[in-house]
């Protein structure tokens, strides 16, 4: 038996059959050089674990005879062979008595003093473990153990054993859950942002320990993985009691005094800063990563070895994301103003995109735990616009716009929110689907109700907080923007005769002037007054539109630098090029002359205005789109001068009439006409006239005049024109009876007209012309 105990066989049997299951590991306190650790567990000899039968049989027999073994005090050193055989630590173990018979269990409890080894070596292993580079680890223990069994003193036995931990055998960082997080202004004389958090850490180990207060630095990744982590703030815990196999509640206080510049500066070749990237992951519900740089011990009683051992160890911790899909509750635009592009911009360039101005309203839902003042001072956004779930276009508000915000406290289960308002100016709109845009315009023109646009945006905000001023970029936002109908809700089931719309627009044309002529054309300028019945305003740098009559192109109209506001719009300059022959050939010239004849005769004439591909040269798609919606409307009434007495005439129809009245001289057989020219500075000429006057349908006389005479701007009188009376007719007799008074005549005339180089022949039919009869 003594030979067995002194042989290598007992070592082999002991190493394979011994089984120790710890039930409690507690730290009873720190010393200047280490810690006192109480270890409790159950020791059992299990012969079935011995591989060699001879060793197993001899070991069972020998330990049955010996019954017990007792060790004296000894030192156990633990090394790491793969790390330069660095010393991990030394444990001073007191004497222990064990029942060594097979199948018998001994409960042991002892206090060992543990002294750490090389701090640098331990940190190297810890860093490899934290970084995931530790596929396996081998520990080698060495000890010279004094042994005796009963009265037999076996002497000191040198024991050396290696243990290899692989894969899942290596413990990982424990799981944790943040159960409370409250952010507010820093307290206790500190500056910046303060945080109070409660964290529950899962503890599956039979460990009992009292940890001293610990302070750490908290950081996040820089612009690249190789950059040094950027410090955000500090965190600190109180003294912590850890009990065996019991989850640990950790109360943490934090402080962010001021955000470092590298944290908020945009990274090279990127549009985001490190803070943007961190918050972006967090708000998408993805795990962000924070880095805990350990450790500082506020308690001066903490031994130096603990400070040296744990300093400069950085632990990455996943920071569970919180989906912020509803962070922005509402995103809307109000008081919208449209601007057509610069006509000389290159098609497809940013300058060729229509632009929108207005008031951006953003309702940001704040997390309940955010209880510190925050003020949004600027905003920008990159938004995709959808209609019927199809992508219509993009709005890129790439420049920062000034903003202001108001915090609204929550009620009940609803958290607080931040109402942000910003005035945007000339944000370009890129249309990506012309056909879909056509649907939108058609709905606005004829739908009679608001059109709902969906916006999916990445919103960036500049904020002023207790930590300082910084920007958060790329916050995901969704919203519905109602676009009000252009026609003001008119019932589309009813036929549109144009009267309601004409009345709503209230178009007035005046101060006409001919600024250029050619043998076939007139270039006319006029001042236009109208009412914008919608809530929209617009800037129109340039817009050209075709004018058609009876399907023939007869003229075009151009406006430049026009500002359109809701309500009354006055003194807007419009230029019209009247050239039926060039646009429509002989047929067009004939239609144009007929239209002029009807118009000056006071007939209800209509024209059609239709956009074309070059209506907005920089954006051909706008012209193509609007060309699908030709608009036919009555020709606007001209604003011409009136005599004061004209307004008292009960038969005044409110229309402009070229012939206002006439005075007939019976003896000289002449007539003088009062004419009203619509032009403010242009003199037109009547080159010839073939006219017949009627009274109640009966011919009264005729005028055949071949000499030209001028019609200056405003009211004027014609020369005395010779009249060939129809003596004996009913019409002439009626004129004679009206001598010294007045009667109403009608007239029909063929008239030659000249303005500059332009000449035309028109007919005129007038009714109820006031005729004064004189000798």
**Gross morphology:** rod-shaped
Helix share, percent: 10-25%
Low-confidence blocks of residues: 1-6, 489-502
Strand content: over 45%
Structural class: alpha+beta
What do the pLDDT scores average to?
81
Largest sheet: 15 strands, mixed
Number of helices: 12
First-to-last CA distance: 168 Å
The total beta strand count reads: 44
Task: Tell me the count of domains.
Answer: 5
Q: From the alpha-carbon coordinates, what is the Rg to the nearest angstrom?
A: 49 Å
Domain Tag1-like fifth Ig-like: 652-763
Pfam families: LEA-2_1, LEA-2_4, LEA-2L_5, Tag1_C
Domain Tag1 C-terminal: 370-484
Region (Disordered): 632-656
Label this structure with key terms:
15-stranded mixed sheet, Tag1, 5 domains, disordered N terminus, Immunoglobulin-like, 775 residues, eleven-stranded mixed sheet, Ig_Tag1-like_5th, 44 strands, alpha+beta, single chain
What does this 3D model show about the protein?
The protein is built from 12 helices and 44 strands. It is of the alpha+beta class. It has 5 domains: 168 residues, no CATH class; 144 residues, Immunoglobulin-like (Sandwich), CATH 2.60.40; 156 residues, no CATH class; 141 residues, no CATH class; 131 residues, Immunoglobulin-like. The chain has a 15-stranded mixed β-sheet that branches. Strands 1, 2, 3, 4, 5, 6, 7, 8, 9, 12 and 15 form an 11-stranded mixed β-sheet that branches. Strands 35, 36, 37, 38, 39, 40, 41, 42, 43 and 44 form a 10-stranded mixed β-sheet that branches. β8 and β9 form a beta hairpin. α8 crosses α11. The protein starts with a helix and ends with a strand. InterPro entries: Ig_Tag1-like_4th, Ig_Tag1-like_5th, Tag1, Tag1_C.
């Amino acid at each position: 038996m003594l030979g067995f105990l002194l042989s290598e066989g007992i070592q082999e049997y002991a190493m394979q059959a011994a089984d120790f299951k710890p039930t409690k590991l507690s730290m009873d306190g720190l010393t200047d050089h280490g810690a006192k650790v109480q270890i409790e567990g159950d020791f059992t000899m299990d012969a079935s674990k011995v591989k060699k039968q001879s060793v197993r049989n001899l070991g069972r027999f020998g330990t049955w005879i010996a019954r017990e073994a007792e060790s004296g005090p000894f030192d156990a050193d633990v090394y790491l062979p793969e790390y330069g055989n660095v010393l991990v630590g030394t444990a001073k173990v007191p004497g222990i008595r064990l029942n060594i018979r097979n199948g018998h269990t001994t409960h042991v409890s002892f206090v060992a003093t543990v002294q750490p080894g090389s701090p640098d070596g331990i940190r190297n292993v810890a860093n490899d473990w934290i970084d995931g580079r530790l596929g396996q680890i081998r520990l080698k223990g060495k000890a010279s153990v004094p042994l005796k069994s009963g009265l037999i003193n076996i002497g000191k036995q040198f024991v050396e054993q290696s243990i290899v931990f692989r894969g899942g055998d290596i413990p990982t960082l424990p799981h944790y859950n943040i159960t409370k997080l409250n952010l507010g202004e820093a307290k206790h004389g500190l500056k910046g942002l303060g945080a109070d958090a409660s964290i529950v850490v899962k503890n599956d180990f039979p460990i009992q320990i009292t940890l001293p207060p610990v302070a750490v630095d908290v950081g996040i990744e820089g612009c690249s993985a190789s950059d040094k982590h950027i410090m955000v703030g500090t965190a600190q815990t109180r003294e912590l009691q850890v009990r065996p196999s019991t989850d640990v509640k950790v109360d943490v206080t934090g402080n962010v005094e001021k955000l470092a510049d590298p944290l908020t500066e945009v990274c090279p070749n990127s549009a985001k800063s490190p803070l943007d990237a961190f918050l972006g992951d967090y708000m998408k519900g993805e795990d962000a990563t924070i880095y805990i740089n350990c450790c500082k011990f506020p308690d001066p009683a903490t031994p130096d070895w603990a400070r040296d051992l744990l300093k400069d160890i950085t632990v990455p911790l996943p920071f569970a994301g919180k989906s912020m899909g509803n962070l922005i509750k509402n995103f809307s635009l109000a008081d919208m103003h449209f601007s057509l592009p610069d006509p000389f911009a290159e098609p497809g360039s940013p300058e060729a995109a229509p632009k929108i101005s207005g008031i951006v309203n953003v309702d940001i839902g704040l997390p309940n735990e955010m209880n510190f003042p925050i003020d949004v001072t600027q905003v920008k956004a990159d938004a995709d616009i959808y209609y019927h779930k199809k992508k219509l276009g993009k709005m890129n508000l790439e420049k920062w716009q000034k903003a202001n915000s108001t915090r609204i406290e929550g009620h009940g289960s609803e958290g607080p929110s931040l109402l942000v308002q910003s005035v945007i100016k000339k944000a370009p709109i890129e249309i990506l689907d012309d056909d879909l845009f056509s649907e939108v315009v058609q709905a606005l023109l004829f739908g009679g109700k608001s059109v709902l646009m969906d916006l999916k945006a990445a919103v960036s905000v500049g904020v002023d907080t207790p930590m300082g001023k910084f920007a958060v970029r790329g916050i995901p936002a969704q919203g519905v923007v109602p676009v009000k109908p252009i026609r003001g809700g008119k019932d589309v089931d009813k036929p549109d005769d144009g009267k309601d719309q004409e009345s709503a627009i209230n178009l007035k044309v005046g101060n006409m002037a001919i600024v250029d002529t050619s043998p076939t054309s007139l270039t006319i300028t006029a001042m236009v007054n109208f009412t914008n019945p919608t809530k929209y305003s617009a800037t129109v740098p340039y817009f050209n539109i075709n004018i058609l009559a009876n399907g023939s192109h007869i003229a075009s109209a151009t406006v430049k630098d026009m500002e359109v506001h809701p309500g009354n719009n006055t003194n807007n300059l419009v230029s019209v090029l009247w050239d039926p022959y060039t646009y429509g050939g002989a047929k067009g010239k004939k239609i144009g002359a007929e239209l002029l004849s009807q118009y000056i005769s006071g007939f209800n004439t209509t024209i059609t205005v239709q956009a074309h591909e070059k209506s907005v040269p920089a954006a051909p798609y706008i012209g193509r789109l609007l060309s699908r919606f030709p608009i036919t409307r009555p020709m606007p009434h001209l604003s011409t001068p009136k005599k004061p007495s004209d307004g008292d005439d009960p038969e005044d129809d409110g229309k402009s009439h070229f012939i206002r009245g006439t005075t007939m001289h019976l003896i000289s057989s002449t007539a003088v006409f009062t004419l009203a020219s619509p032009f403010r500075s242009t003199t037109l000429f009547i080159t010839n006239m073939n006219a017949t006057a009627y009274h109640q349908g009966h011919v009264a006389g005729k005028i055949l005049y071949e000499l030209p005479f001028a019609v200056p701007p405003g009211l004027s009188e014609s020369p005395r024109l010779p009249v060939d009376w129809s003596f004996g007719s009913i019409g002439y007799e009626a004129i004679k009876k009206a001598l010294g008074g007045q009667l109403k005549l009608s007239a029909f005339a063929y008239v030659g007209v000249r303005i500059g180089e332009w000449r035309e022949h028109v007919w005129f039919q007038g009714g109820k012309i006031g005729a004064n009869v004189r000798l």
